[in-house]
Amino acid sequence: MVDPDERETAALSAGLKAMAEIMAEIGWERRLCDVTGPQARNMAQAAVGAFLQSMRDSAPEVPF
Q: Are the C-beta atoms of residues 46 and 19 closer than 8 Å to each other?
């Protein structure tokens, strides 16, 4: 994403917050190289899901 607009920036923040919640469950002291595949997928799914939901919420007329 090049030069994100205000909606995209907000959606990125939502995605990071969702990912951080999963990371808090895993444990912040764990190195990223020690995160399991399922844990990494959980973080990615949380981030992408929250990003998409934020985009949908900010522009319900656009099918994201």
A: yes
The length of the chain in residues reads: 64
pLDDT tens by residue, 15-57: 999 999 999 999 999 999 999 999 999 999 999 999 999 999 9
Residues 6 or more apart in contact with residue 61 via CB below 8 angstroms: none
- For residue 36, give both structure tokens: 């399991």
Q: What are the distances in angstroms from CA 19 to CA 46, 60, 61, 62?
A: 6, 23, 26, 25
How confident is the model at residue 1, as a pLDDT? 77
- CB-based burial, 14-47: b 16+ in 10 Å, e otherwise: bbeebbeebbeebeeeeeeeebeeebeebbeebb
Q: Quote the CA–CA distance of 12 and 28 in Å, as a whole number.
A: 20
